[in-house]
Structures are given as structure tokens and as C-alpha cells.
Structure of Release factor glutamine methyltransferase:
Amino acid sequence: MPQVQSIREAFAEASSFLSGLGVSEPQRSAQLLLEHTLGLSGAAYYMALADPFPPEKRERWEYAVTKRASGEPVQYITGEQEFYGRVFEVTPDVLIPRPETELLVEAVLRYAAELWPQGVAGGRAAGASDAGEPGERAEGVGDEGELGGAKGDASERAAGGGYAAARPGRRLTVIDIGAGSGAISVTLAAEAPAWRVLAGDISPAALAVAGRNAERLGAAVELRLGDLLEPFKGLETDILVSNPPYIPGGDIAGLQREVRDHEPRTALDGGEDGLDPYRRMMEQLPLLPAPPRLVGFELGLGQAEQVAAMLKAAGHWSEIVTVPDLAGIPRHVIGIAR
Ligand code: GLN
């Protein structure tokens, strides 16, 4: 690249270079990479546009633009992606958090607030008195359906019999299956600090990223290595949330090259019809002492009906809701046991 004079010119040059190569979102890419290289963001970036491009940053800048030119997602170059108002570290070991997944987090928080009004607003789960001692927790096993609330026990027990229920001595417990960067689990832990949040993943490298995100965002998340529900065997679970791989294997070749060539295949490939992880999670459900009262899943185009049917067939959730994404595609399926 020829010498550039100002930051604005560096932006223009990189944009047209990337655009000429057919790289997607050339302008947005150029701006994000510039902001990252210069350590500026938002207003500070715009105010610096007329400044000379700092010569000591040139090598780093050209390296970043070259990587983007080869199709690498901007987020793997900057190492960051914002999610639900927080900046997450991302590496090629994890799927880049998508904006639509924020809607899954939002739906889980909303339905959880309905199911456990005290659990979200009041810190602890409904009726919970104090942090459970290990002994107390063990005692609780086998009490499924026993709700902690002082009022309405009879009717709630009738409605919720057989389901995991928040009780005194046990915090509302959430598991995130296939946690990746920890976008979902870390956000839930940060938004609802009273909950016990656990993140599972089959990839140790992904769990390491999730752990760093939890740490840097000050969220308490317990990490569990293993396949889907396996690492949560025996855990009383109130909420299960998952954005597993759900792309049909045969569709991977047709994905945008940023995704196909750079994001982890294990985070994308859901088997022949993309629904293997869902079938396996349903099969593994008996590993938990009782079905979680709230489940929230992300899925792809044309899969909502099938996943809703799977949940219905499992028979544990009285209400099944489909949530559209910003493009109007049914993107999340929520199961609720009231
Ligand atoms: N939403 C991602 C994509 O379209 C896929 C994520 C997933 O498989 N969980 O690339």
C-alpha cells in the first residue's frame, strides 16, 4: 500500500482495497481495524480522522488489513466482539457471538423473571433464605416439585410437580450447553448475579476463552468440560440454554467464507439436518434429576417447527414459544413449564 497521509485517507484506502477484493463489509471492516490499531473508538475515532496516521502503527495496520483481505473475520483480528453491551474476547477457537443471540439471552431473562420473580429481582431464588450448605443441598435431592415460596405452594406444586424448582438453600441454577466464548453464560451471570451459572463445552480451548471472559467481566461462571449435558449429570437445573451447532453438514460449504473458513466447524456443524445436538440433548435429559423448567434454544432457518415438536414430544413444557430474530426468521424456541 502507498504511503497515506491522514487517518481518513488510511480508512479510504483500506476500504477500497478490501472492496476491490470482494471482502464483505469493507468500510465497517476498515473502521473497526483502524479503531483497533489506533486504540480509538466512537467519537475519539471520528475526531482523529484528520490527524496524520501514526507511522509507528503502520506495520500493525497493514498486517490487520492483509488478514482481513484474506477473509479472516474482523473479530478474530481485533480479538473482540461486543455482546449485550459488553466486550467479549474471541479467538478462532470460538464462534463469534451473533447479535441475534442477544435475543435469546433477553428471552431467558424475561421468562425467568416470570417464573421466579424473587429469583431475579431479589437476589436469591423465591423463598431462599441463605446460601445453601453442601449438606442442605444434598438433603434437597429428591424433593423435586417442592417450591420455596411461602405462598401458593399447593397450586404451584400441582403445576410444577416433577420439575426442578428453586428452593431454600439452592440458588437458581442455569446451564449453558456449548458455551463457546461464554457470551450467553457470562452475560446471564453478569445480568443475574444471584444465579448459579455453569458453562459446558466439549472444547477445552473454548472453555479457556469463556473463563477469561467471565474473569474480565467480573462474572462468576463455573466451567465444565464435556459433551452436551454429560458434565452436568445429577445437577438440579432450573434453566437450560443452548446455542449449539445447528447448521446441516451439507450446507457448510455454502456459508460465507468468513464463517466457513475461519469459525470452528465444531461450533457450526449439527450433523445431517443440523438437529443432532437437539436430539442428543433430549436423549440426555434424564441425566438431570428433573427437566429444567425453562429451556431456550437457538436454531436456524426452517428448524423452529422441528425443535418445537421435539420439545412438545418430550412432554415436559406446557408452553412452547418461538421468538423471531430481527430479520423475522424464527430463531429461538423457548420451553416453559408453568
Ligand atoms: N448463527 C451461526 C451462523 O449463521 C451458526 C451458529 C450455530 O450453528 N450455532 O453462522
Remarks:
- The longest strand covers residues 330-336.
- Residues 7-78 form a domain with the Helicase, Ruva Protein; domain 3 fold (CATH 1.10.8.10).
